[in-house]
Design goal:
- The protein is globular, with a radius of gyration of 14 Å.
- A hairpin with a 6-residue loop joins strand 9 and strand 10.
- By secondary structure, it is mainly β.
- Strands 1-3-4-6-7-8-9-10 form an 8-stranded antiparallel β-barrel.
């Protein structure tokens, strides 16, 4: 199903900027933080992630442009996360894992919800920010 990031990320990227005077500027939502999978839609249908392989169930984006992803294979969490570098431009997230070609996906942020459109087939993951 998910090719180690054709979910593992048909990838990511992000950066946020903010001037020191937050009283006159509104803060932009940021990917920086840890995100847990809440919904997985495959072919437009909500599915149980435990019934699929290579599902990125937990994402962490660091402010320095690095990140990690925990992958679940049929409900079993891998023993260690996979590391990547990332950046964003507009609503595009680019992620590159070591030794792999960078991949770009569409994403959106709304409050504590991150939605990632993994594949051109319409598979979508929705994540909630871990607090």
């Amino acid at each position: 199903m998910l090719k180690k990031f054709a979910i593992t990320f048909t990838p990511f990227a992000f950066v946020s900027a903010c001037n020191g005077d937050s009283s006159t500027e509104s803060e932009q939502p940021t990917l920086v933080g840890t995100w847990n999978l809440t919904t997985l839609r495959v072919g437009g249908v909500v599915v149980n992630p435990d019934e699929h392989n290579d599902v990125p169930v937990k994402l962490t984006f660091s402010a320095d442009g690095t990140g990690s992803v925990w992958i679940s294979d049929y409900g079993l969490l891998e023993s260690s996360p996979e590391e990547f570098i990332w950046e964003t431009q507009g609503n595009q997230l680019t992620v590159q894992f070591s030794g792999q070609t960078a991949e770009t996906v569409s994403y959106s942020l709304s409050g504590n919800a991150l939605t990632v459109d993994f594949w051109s087939s319409g598979d979508v993951g929705t994540y909630t920010r871990q607090t």
